[in-house]
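Milestone 3.1: sequence recovery, worked example.
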């Protein structure tokens, strides 16, 4: 069943791209237009679809599936249907890592450094929660509460950075 739905999603995305390239708005297309022969496009248009758009669509689907699985695992492990990266402080830690990079300058690596630093801080927050669970024999409730404490800590650190930074740099963090 899931592979059938993935196939339909892929066909739908390809048909939407076909209609968009023809200059038609998706809202203006009718079901009869989807039964046309496969589109005949220029080589450049085919390169754009196959080398840029299709990989982005596929990796977006894969990333969504991975995030869904990670969220389900998090909820099962903590035995809490409300467990999420927000309640465990992972999102706040990632936001703090990105804010540090934006406010202190991106340097040579640009946006890759922002994503990398956000990932490192999210991983750091996750390791702190796992360390609490391993050494203290923590229950799921203690893990969630420690995650909330970590969330408030990193949120406070982000706010402190924004307070001391100049207003132009803060615009990059807030936006």
């Amino acid at each position: 069943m899931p592979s059938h739905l993935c196939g339909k999603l892929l066909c739908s995305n390809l048909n939407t791209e076909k209609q968009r390239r023809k200059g038609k708005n998706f809202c203006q297309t009718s079901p009869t237009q989807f039964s046309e022969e496969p589109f005949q496009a220029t080589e450049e248009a085919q390169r754009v679809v196959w080398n840029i758009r299709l990989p982005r669509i596929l990796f977006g689907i894969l990333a969504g599936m991975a995030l869904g699985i990670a969220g389900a695992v998090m909820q099962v492990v903590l035995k809490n249907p409300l467990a999420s990266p927000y309640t465990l402080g992972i999102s706040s830690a990632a936001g703090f890592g990105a804010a540090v990079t934006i406010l202190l300058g991106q340097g040579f690596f640009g946006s890759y450094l922002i994503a990398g630093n956000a990932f490192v801080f999210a991983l750091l927050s996750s390791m702190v929660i796992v360390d609490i669970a391993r050494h203290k024999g923590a229950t799921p409730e203690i893990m969630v509460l420690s995650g909330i404490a970590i969330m408030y800590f990193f949120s406070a650190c982000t706010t402190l950075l924004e307070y001391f930074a100049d207003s132009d740099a803060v615009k990059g963090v807030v936006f």
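Residues 43-78 form the longest helix (36 residues). Confidence is low (pLDDT under 50) at residues 28-37.
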